[in-house]
Write a structure and sequence with these properties.
Length: about 525
């Protein structure tokens, strides 16, 4: 009887072992969960294991809503060391630290673009065979920086790794600035080709009416586009210079050559034509080399005094700067326009909201309209500025455009945690990171559909394979039934950490022109406990 009883006990144990699922099935992450442990195991005291990630089949979930879009930029001015570097002559390690701090702060504030001044006045903040190193970088124009450090190359790399666009900002015709103290280098335009330059007040200027001067400036732009992985080319409002009192701009010689060659335009129309041709050629040569690179201009914020009705201005940029900005928009010669709207909402003679509405009405080709705004004036407590002026202006910008954007002048105003500026942006106005609006008229390879894998656990992680057609990758997470953008990273990244309490993740590839690929959304496995 004892033998029979033992036989039955063995058979019973074998039966129970056969019914229990294998250990691999208990941890396969297929969403079914692990079965209860056998009673025998429960009877054996043991330390509780640490939560573990489930693994195996990845469970698809419903795709998130479209990515939020807004261009959030800041100008990083190098002329007179406004924003970078803090002073000329820093070591390469100090320059890296300062640039890294700019990028980290931009990411902290949830910006997605920096507009970096690479050519303040016929000089270079990058390695160039055409123009000398800027004295704002080194302590004498033309002197090689420590270790041959190239700020533009470094900044492009750091921006792209952190999901920021980098636009190279050129001053097309300014040849010297009153802040320039060192002697000009032999390779500077004023020394190498003085016939292209004129002195006007405290400045030296490359004469826009001299076709060779225009070609010189276009060559510097083309050189940067060809050798550097910039996302945009940006020029500001300095075409013909702002008036120096009643002094006329000294272009008699170039105008006489024009008339002597059979030209019939009056001087004002001739000047505007010079700038029109420059703008046309600039966009054409940029797109001929890299059709995904955006071309943007930031003109003075008022087209003409009295336009629109009730608006006044101290200058007439159409007449005095020879900038027919409305024509550039109408013809589609820019990919984005950044009129400098540096006035408050309540200043009726230059009312922010009135000017914003007017500029949008002049945009038949629906190019990107991302005005410049001035947080520095909020810090200074400028007259007519509301306590929440910056937030109110951005609200107006968002209400006026389905693909809104703006650029802050300048980065130094965003360094401090001022309640009405940087803190307001980080904590209220910029609720989450966003992707810059797409420019589908620019040519770029179509964005891929990524194939992510998710590892759950106390700190879940999503990974994917890099694809050269993905310039950036947007990482979204679902928490408590709400999707939000967690991070935007460079296309060469292959992993991102996720919030601990999210239950789904989505990856979206972003092409060079901002067009988004199809998102891939997966459930985040819950940790076993």
């Amino acid at each position: 009887m004892i033998v029979v009883a033992l036989r039955w006990l063995v058979l019973a144990a074998l039966f129970l072992a056969t019914c229990a699922p294998p250990s691999s099935a208990r941890a396969n992450g297929d969403g079914r969960g692990a079965p209860d442990a056998p009673a025998a195991a429960a009877a054996t005291p043991a330390a509780a294991p640490a939560p573990a990630a489930t693994a195996g089949r990845q469970e698809a979930v419903e795709a998130p809503p479209p990515l939020p879009r807004e261009f959030r930029g800041a100008w990083v001015a190098t002329v007179d060391n406004i924003d970078f570097p803090s002073r000329p002559g820093l070591s390469a390690s100090q320059l890296r630290i300062e640039l890294e701090a700019i990028v980290a702060r931009a990411v902290e504030l949830k910006l997605n673009a920096l507009v970096f001044q690479v050519r303040p006045c016929g000089d270079a903040l990058y390695e160039s065979k055409l123009e000398p190193w800027s004295e704002f970088l080194v302590d004498a124009q033309g002197k090689r920086p420590d270790g041959g450090f190239d700020p533009l190359a470094y900044l492009i790399d750091r921006c792209h790794q952190r999901g920021l666009q980098l636009h190279a900002w050129f001053n097309p015709f300014r040849a010297s600035h009153p802040a320039c103290k060192s002697a000009p280098h032999a390779s500077h335009v004023t020394q190498k080709a003085p016939q292209l330059c004129v002195t006007y007040g405290k400045y030296q200027w490359m004469d826009p009416g001299n076709p060779t001067a225009a070609k010189w400036s276009l060559a510097t732009i083309q050189d940067v586009v060809r050798r550097y992985d910039v996302d945009g080319v940006h020029v500001d409002d300095y075409f013909y210079p702002y008036p120096e009192g009643n002094k006329p701009f000294p272009d008699d010689a170039s105008y006489a050559r024009y008339r002597g060659g059979g030209g019939s335009l009056g001087r004002s129309d001739w000047r505007r034509k010079n700038i029109d041709v420059f703008v046309q050629q600039m966009r054409a040569l940029v797109h001929a080399d890299k059709p995904h690179v955006a071309v943007g201009i930031s003109p003075f914020g008022i087209a003409r005094p009295g336009v629109p009705k009730g608006i006044s201005a101290g200058i007439d940029q159409y007449e005095q700067l020879a900038a027919d900005v409305v024509k550039w928009l109408r013809e589609g010669w820019v990919d984005y326009l950044t009129p400098q709207l540096y006035w408050p909402i309540d200043q009726k003679a230059q009312a922010f909201d009135v000017l914003l509405k007017w500029w949008h009405s002049q945009n038949p080709k629906q190019r990107a309209m991302w005005p410049g705004i001035n947080p520095g004036r909020a810090l200074d407590g400028a007259r007519n500025w509301r306590p929440d002026e910056l937030a109110d202006q951005i609200a107006l910008l968002r209400g006026a455009d389905r693909a809104p954007g703006h650029i802050h002048f300048s980065f130094k105003a965003l360094r401090k945690d001022a309640p009405n500026v940087a803190l307001a942006l980080r904590d209220r106005v910029y609720a989450e990171p966003v992707v810059a609006p797409a420019m589908p008229w620019l040519q770029a390879p179509a964005p891929p559909t990524l194939a992510p894998r998710v590892e759950g656990g106390e700190r879940p992680v999503v990974s994917w394979q890099a694809d050269p057609a993905a310039h950036f990758v947007a990482v979204q997470a679902r928490e408590r039934s709400r999707w939000r953008v967690v991070e935007i990273v460079g296309g060469n990244r292959t992993q991102a950490a996720l919030p601990a309490d999210c239950d789904a993740v989505a990856l979206t590839a972003i092409a060079r022109n901002g067009v988004a690929g199809k998102p891939t959304a997966l459930a985040v496995p819950m940790p076993r406990r």
